[in-house]
Automatic annotation (TrEMBL), chain A:
Record localization: Cytoplasmic vesicle, Secretory vesicle, Synaptic vesicle
Pfam families: Rogdi_lz
InterPro entries cross-referenced by the UniProt entry: RAVE2/Rogdi
GO cellular component, one term: nuclear envelope
GO aspect biological process, one term: bone mineralization
Name of the protein described by the UniProt record: Protein rogdi homolog
Organism the protein comes from: Crocodylus porosus (Saltwater crocodile)
Family: Belongs to the rogdi family.
Automatic annotation (TrEMBL), chain B:
GO biological process entries: protein localization to plasma membrane
Lineage top rank: taxon: Eukaryota
Identification of the protein by name: WD repeat domain 72
Lineage, broadest ranks: Eukaryota, Metazoa, Chordata, Craniata, Vertebrata
GO cellular component: cytoplasm
The gene coding this protein: WDR72
Domain WDR72-like alpha-solenoid: start-end pairs: 868-1084
WD repeat coordinates: 13-54, 58-102, 551-592
InterPro entries: WD40/YVTN_repeat-like_dom_sf, WD40_repeat_CS, WD40_repeat_dom_sf, WD40_rpt, WDR72-like, WDR72_alpha-sol
Alphabetical list of Pfam families matching this protein: WD40, WDR72_alpha-sol
Keywords: Phosphoprotein, Repeat, WD repeat
């Protein structure tokens, strides 16, 4: 217990430090966070307020290698695929099939839309805690961080985990009706995002005869079904004979994912700054009872507060082997960002980080 | 599995944290409902003078509550639906606190509206939901199953907010919604009811971009039936509902974000902000054009402009964000209320005048706050109710305010409660005694003599405790492991109070302590796994006193720890879905994986059941682990996956904990809350179990022993256990005889009790054997699990009765209870709990009784509501006829002992609980006789544990007379009670009413008889002879006869002796040799005549 008796002077210092942590340090980190998230949000190229500002269209070539049976050109506009041009070589007769989106149709990529919405929610959570806002308690910060992290985790998970669909679900989705010329009945198409890649899968089917001796077992939900998977759709049974999967990296999705990871770590580090000890001292006990919080612990908490940036660096150095992947990615982004971006505090700090190892 | 649990909450001085994320006022303006980030829902009383007081807190959700809404026509059924971040939905009855329905869907809702179209719809109506998914979901209000979706064809996106437009002019209910990108959409509701029921696609009728994002609220003006108010975060706009033309726009002041608004009256609006301001505007027509049917939108646009009339503000310290709402009632007794909830947990309400006016000089008038309240205010106001279970222990030491309990653990087999305090002390005390000392009046004596120990070792607060033996018998029962904020893990011997070892981790506060799984490699090792706040995991080898591995590289909080037994690997799953694999022997990080690979690794380990813990970590959710088990898949929930199945391991863990609780009639459940780390305790009384135990003691004619057994259980246990081993050995060799003493009966209690749980005890015996093995090398330090002291049972029953009785209704009655039932008055009202199912419990908060007048508060101590008195009177009149019929039987009750009265009272309580708890469906459709049959069967099922007991019933007049249920006379009472239930009388009210009536009745008779003579015992033995014996002198004899009866009539009981031979009563066993030996000595004739018996004896014990 002797160690637990903090002197009045020490208490005063601690109080002072806690105030500083709440008023200065938190805002600094929040600013950083906001900048990163804004950067991420820009990647999703949202036309704000539906002001008809034309969202940039990007073309992606899928299936570039000569061995690919399926080749496609997809045009992505924000969260929607507005054009798709698919060429397919039938394996049996080398016949070339071609189909494209109808002019009046576009396909929403739900994953991108959700990820974008989640990021914007996270930004919205941060906006009304600008510099003017005074945090009073540590738990307030923790709660905010929890809420932000929840949105960010969801945004990231939305991109990293495509929906697991059953074949009848794919067959009944509106996607099959979007093409001109209409898709042959023995072909199914599915688009999804997996991490930073835009994926197109084409399933070739063959109808199972009703009197077929084959043991029919419908396949469950999956991201990618294998040849041999069976299903029943519209009272007809099918079996997947060929599966073609082609994909292509969407650079800005990659950026967004890196930003998510970085901001999640920032949040966690802010959370880890020993809030739990100090609130006990401030919020609940009041001055009279606070002596129970021991010096070593406060020391520990203090260690976390001094120079968040320092700590960040050292921690990153410490986990160097784990972070190599995204550090490299970061550098690539910084190069692509050009000069203007380098001036913003976020990117500078990111740059610094990138150079530490 | 429905458990008839009676719960009583013992709060601490500090209220659990409750950061409000959702708030609503019920339509009767008597209840405020708030949902919190911690996942709990609070019910607050709102008095007619607009005073707020806390009433109940509802546990059940495992994640932050996102929205609340009414779930039925409120006048008929007071139901409210809540939804959370992780997709859980619950329907609660806000008058009783019961969870009516629960579901878990892969959708996160942000707003829910109840819709019922009486002339087109059957059933209970729909919940229209929007949230983090495209468009609008329709969920059945009764089953919580997704019925259908409303689809939008154009720019389909998340819906931010919506409202139901119901207008007599338009003759069509519509749903107006605004998407996250600012597109306004309108769906027809009433005309699409049939197509929704037939699952046809329903598309929006209209879609229009509003050119503004972050829409917060949309409201239709029912007064003008024309205006549409749309509040965005930076501006609010008024549209004409006829053609969606813009009528006016008002931007927010710098830095302010609008959060919502409501229409007060025709052309009068109230708008509120995130920082707790609200503004009341009058929309003024400029007079240029008052035409209702404007030809040009632009002309009209100029005719409306807002004029600020009034404003409200919160002056004191604010915490973001404010969640506000407005309740508009035009009927007389109701008010126009503006209400706000804050992250700090404070509720503020304003009374908005019917006609708000600005000040004389035209400047806006400030409307004062009508009331503000927090949970902590309630706790401070009702200090006696919010005293913690061991507060008096700490306080008595040095007179200063007691340190809060941070962590605690209940040891059921020792009936000990271990509490870790904020100041580093660990208190060990007798659980039941502590509860009694806390709850009952006039036992300051008990408080001082309350046996307790203090373990001093931590320098600051004790954050977690682990009693390894309760989880795995590999560990010694004397061990306790504690973790502190000082980053120390201390290994204690709780009997000798010494520190066996202290591990210093230097990794921040210890957040959690877990046990290693039982797998081959680690079998002989006693390893404890500790998780620290720097997300490191340490494996501590207790006996070798070393830290095997300290895995420190985790960047995110640890979510899962698994062991790979073959390769000796530690697999750590973090909250960011990454996985770290550590080699235990070398302490090196072997692999770090993220994404798909990580998931694959974790699922591959799922099969080897080495699951140590799940998502429930300090910050994530409160540690009601066994309650939340069914929900634990929450963290693994992904939006992408449409189906969410519970991992098997979790289910099984739920079961395991379930059985632990069923076995004990009395349990203390420590609950830890989020954020402020405060723990409180819930006392759980298992009614059925208690009745069953009391019954067994009744059968043995056990006289109730006095309620304080203030010996030191532990030391006693130790010594008796040692002796027992000795006597056992002796018996094996010589089979010596020992004189019988009066304590036999308690042994028999155990025995009979064991009969009752044949299945259970069989399970246990396995455990005991294993335990035996372990103990063969060591001293036996304690009684094995599975036995319950008869004294504890009686004490528990008395405590429960004390808690349930409405004290202070009748002074005389109180005194009679104290005198003849030997129960004590309560020192303050009790916070009751209502267990809806394994996962949902509601607990009353301090101040639940404060709606009553001041005068009453002084006299009435524990009356749930005024209704109870009324109900109790009705019960008495209903029972009147019956009393006469039963008169002959009543005599028996009068004559018998206190314990029997207690027993019969408890049986009534358990019965009432059973009836009142029955689901509606079972009783609604069927006629009353069937209903009764059902009740009876159910009752029998719970009563009739083994055939041997059935045969015994016939010979036991005590049983017949005292409490056989339901006799034909009781039918009317059962009817009455189930009728109350249908009128949604709370279970606790019913119980209190019945108890009060029963006590009044039995006390009246007791008073009469007790004056005349000393209590006598009427016992009829198996041969039909009647002995009326002076109680005290003759008990031994009667007991003896009973023992004989049992040994003759119930073969099972003797067989059972073996399995419980270990589990001798530790207090009496000291003077008691083995009971088999005893039986031989006492009843040799019987033994001979029953060869099976001697066989059993010879092969297993003798």
């Amino acid at each position: 217990m002797a160690a637990g008796m903090a002197s009045a002077a020490e208490r005063a210092v601690l109080e002072e430090e806690f105030k500083w942590l709440l008023q200065e340090e938190v805002h600094a980190v929040l600013k950083q966070l906001q900048d990163i998230l804004k950067e991420a949000s820009h990647r999703f190229a949202l036309s704000v307020g539906g002001s008809e500002a034309v969202v940039k269209q990007e073309n992606f070539m899928l299936g570039t290698s000569s061995t690919d049976q399926v080749k496609g050109v997809l045009t992505l506009q924000g969260d929607a695929l507005c054009q798709a041009d698919i060429n397919m070589k039938m394996p049996r007769n080398n016949q070339l099939l071609h189909f494209a989106f109808r002019e009046d149709k576009q396909w929403k990529l739900q994953q991108i839309q959700d990820a974008r919405n989640h990021v914007n929610q996270a930004i919205y959570l941060l906006t009304n805690r600008d510099v003017d806002y005074q945090f009073k308690t540590g738990s307030e910060v923790l709660k905010l961080m929890d809420a932000v992290m929840l949105q960010l985790t969801r945004a990231r998970n939305r991109l990293t985990t495509p929906a697991t669909l059953t074949l009848p679900e794919i067959a009944s989705s509106g996607l099959t009706k979007m093409f001109t010329p209409a898709l042959p009945s023995d072909i199914l198409v599915n688009f999804y995002i997996n991490l930073n890649k835009l994926c197109l899968t084409v399933y070739q089917l063959h109808a199972l005869q009703p009197n077929s001796t084959k043991h029919f077992r419908p396949a469950g939900g999956s991201i990618l079904h294998n040849p041999g998977a069976m299903f029943e759709f519209g009272s007809q049974r099918y079996e997947v004979s060929h599966v073609h999967k082609v994909e292509c990296v969407v650079p800005w999705l990659n950026d967004a994912l890196v930003f998510f990871t970085v901001s999640l770590q920032l949040c966690q580090q802010l959370k880890d700054k020993g809030w739990l000890e100090i609130p006990v001292l401030r919020e609940v006990l009041g001055p009279a009872n606070s002596a129970s919080t021991s010096a070593p612990v406060c020391q520990c908490a203090r260690g976390g507060t001094k120079g968040a940036f320092h700590q960040w660096k050292s921690e990153l150095g410490f986990t160097e082997d784990l972070c190599v992947f995204w550090l490299l990615e970061l550098q690539a982004i910084l190069v692509s960002l050009g000069k203007s971006a380098l001036n913003s505090p976020t990117t500078t700090s990111l740059l610094l980080l990138g150079r530490t190892p | 599995m429905k458990i008839s649990m009676q719960a009583v909450a013992l709060w601490g001085k500090r209220a659990p944290s409750h950061s409000i994320t959702a708030i609503m006022v019920t339509e009767d303006q008597q209840t405020i409902v708030t949902g919190s980030q911690e996942g709990q829902i609070c019910l607050w009383n709102l008095s007619s003078e607009l005073k707020i007081s806390s009433r109940e807190i509802l546990f059940g959700h495992t994640a932050s509550v996102t929205c609340l809404a009414k779930a039925r026509d409120f006048e008929k059924q007071p139901y409210v639906v809540s939804a959370t971040e992780n997709g859980e939905m619950c329907v609660w009855n806000v008058t009783s606190g019961q969870c009516i329905e629960k579901a878990k869907l892969p959708y996160r809702h942000t707003a829910i509206y109840y819709y019922h179209c009486s002339f087109r719809m059957t059933g209970d109506g729909w919940l229209l939901c929007c949230g983090e998914y495209q468009d609008v979901l329709i969920i059945d209000a009764k089953t919580l199953a997704v019925l259908h979706t409303l689809i939008s064809t154009q720019s389909s996106d998340w819906i931010n907010c919506m409202c139901i437009v119901h207008s007599t002019r338009i003759q069509e209910d519509s749903l107006v919604a605004v998407s996250i990108t600012g597109d306004l959409k309108v769906w027809d509701l009433s005309s699409s009811v049939s197509s929704i029921q037939e699952k046809q696609s329903v598309y929006e009728k209209e879609s229009k971009s509003l050119d503004c994002t972050n829409c917060q609220t949309i409201r239709f003006c029912t007064y003008t039936e024309r205006l549409l108010l749309v509040v965005f975060s930076y501006c609010w706009k008024v549209y004409d509902y006829c053609d969606f033309s813009l009528l006016c726009t008002e931007f927010s002041q710098r830095g302010q974000c609008f959060a919502g608004g409501e229409v007060l009256a025709a052309y009068r609006l109230i708008i509120w902000t995130e920082d707790g301001h609200s503004y009341i505007y009058q929309l003024l027509n400029s007079g240029l054009s008052k035409s209702i049917y404007p030809t040009d939108g632009k002309v009209l646009k100029e005719t409306v402009y807002p004029h600020l009339l009034c404003s409200t503000d919160v002056k004191e310290y604010k915490s973001f964000p404010f969640i506000m709402g407005f309740m508009n009632e035009r009927k007389e007794p109701f008010y126009k209320i503006l209400f706000a909830g804050e992250a700090s947990g404070r509720i503020t309400i304003w009374h908005i005048p019917d006609v708000p006016v600005s000040t004389l000089d035209g400047s806006p008038k400030e409307i004062p706050v009508a009331a503000a309240w927090t949970l902590q205010d309630s706790f401070d106001k009702h200090q006696s109710m919010s005293e913690g279970i061991i507060d008096h222990l700490c306080a008595s030491k040095d007179g200063t305010a007691s340190a809060a309990v941070i962590s605690s653990v209940y040891i059921p087999n020792l009936d000990k409660l271990v509490c870790g305090c904020e100041d580093g002390k660990i208190f060990i005390t007798l659980a039941l005694h502590a509860a009694k000392a806390r709850l009952l009046e006039n036992i300051s004596l008990l408080k001082h003599t309350l046996p307790h120990k203090i373990l001093k070792g931590h320098s600051c607060s004790v954050t977690c405790l682990l009693y390894p033996y309760s989880k795995s018998v590999r560990f010694d029962p004397s061990w306790l492991v504690s973790g502190g904020q000082d980053s120390c893990v201390i290994w204690w011997d709780i009997f000798t109070e010494e520190i066996l070892h202290q591990f210093t981790l230097q990794a921040g506060p210890v957040m959690n302590l877990l046990l290693s799984p039982e797998c081959y490699q680690l079998k002989d090792h006693r390893i404890v796994c500790s998780v620290c706040s720097d997300h490191s995991v340490a494996l501590l080898h207790l006996q070798e006193r070393i830290c095997l591995l300290h895995a420190r590289k985790h960047l995110f909080p640890v979510k899962m720890i698994k062991f790979h037994p073959v390769e000796n690997l530690l697999v750590v799953g973090c909250e960011d879905d990454s996985v770290y694999i550590w080699e235990i022997e070398t302490g090196t990080l072997e692999r770090h994986e993220t994404g798909e690979m990580a998931k694959a690794i974790l699922t591959s380990f799922e099969d080897s059941h080495c699951l140590v813990m799940d998502s429930i970590l300090p910050v994530s959710q409160d540690s009601q682990r066994h309650k939340n088990a069914a929900y634990k898949s929450s963290s693994s929930y992904k939006l992408g996956a449409l189906s969410c199945n519970l991992p098997h391991a979790e289910k099984s863990s739920d079961k395991v904990t379930g059985t632990i609780h069923v076995r004990w009639p009395f349990t203390i459940l420590p609950v830890k809350t989020n954020w402020n780390n405060i723990s409180f305790h819930v006392l759980l009384f298992d009614l059925e179990k208690l009745v069953e135990l009391l019954l067994s003691s009744q059968l043995n004619g056990l006289k109730s022993s006095n309620s304080f057994h203030s010996y030191d259980t532990l030391k006693r246990a130790k010594s008796t256990a040692e002796k027992r081993t000795l006597t056992l050995k002796r018996n094996k060799t010589s089979g010596c005889l020992s004189p019988m003493d009066e304590q036999i009966n308690t042994i028999f209690t155990n025995q009979v009790h064991r009969d009752n749980n044949t299945a259970r005890s069989l399970e246990e015996s396995g455990g005991i054997k294993r335990q035996k093995k372990l103990k063969s090398s060591k001293k036996i330090r304690m009684q094995p699990s599975g036995k319950i002291d008869a004294n504890i049972t009686t004490d528990t029953a008395k405590l429960l009765l004390s808690c349930l009785l409405p004290w202070g209704v009748d002074k005389e009655l109180d005194n009679l209870c104290v005198r003849y039932l030997d129960i004590l008055r309560l020192q303050c009202p009790v916070s009751f709990g209502l267990v809806s199912n394994e996962n949902h419990i509601s607990l009353m908060l301090p101040g639940w009784n404060s709606t009553r007048g001041v005068l009453e508060e002084h006299t009435l101590i524990n009356l749930v509501s005024r209704k109870v008195l009324d109900l109790s009177n009705r019960y008495i009149t209903a029972a009147q006829g019956q009393i006469e019929k039963k008169n002959g039987l009543e005599n028996d009750v009068e004559g018998t002992q206190i314990s029997q009265t207690i027993f019969s009272l408890l049986r009534k309580v358990a019965l009432v609980n059973t009836i009142a708890d029955m689901p509606f469906e079972l009783t609604n459709g069927i006629d009353s006789s069937q209903k009764l049959e059902f009740v009876r069967n159910r009752w029998r099922n719970t009563e009739a544990f083994s055939p041997s007991f059935h045969s015994f019933y016939g010979e036991s007049p005590n049983y017949k007379s005292g409490s056989r249920f339901p006799d034909s006379g009781n039918i009317s009472l059962v009817k009455l009670i189930s009728c109350w239930r249908d009128q949604s009388v709370k279970i606790i009210e019913t119980i209190q009413a019945v108890l009060l009536a029963e006590v009044q009745r039995s006390m009246k008779t007791l008073k009469k008889t007790s004056v005349i003579s000393q209590p006598v015992t009427m016992i009829e033995n198996g041969n039909g002879e009647i002995h009326t014996l002076p109680k005290i002198e003759q008990t031994e004899q009667t007991e003896l006869q009973y023992i004989k009866n049992i040994s003759l009539a119930t073969p099972v009981s003797v067989v059972k002796q073996d399995s419980c031979s270990n589990s001798a009563n530790f207090q009496e066993a000291e003077d008691m040799p083995d009971r088999c030996v005893l039986e031989e000595s006492e009843s040799p004739d019987e033994m001979k005549s029953h060869p099976w018996m001697s066989k059993v004896c010879s092969c297993k014990v003798c």
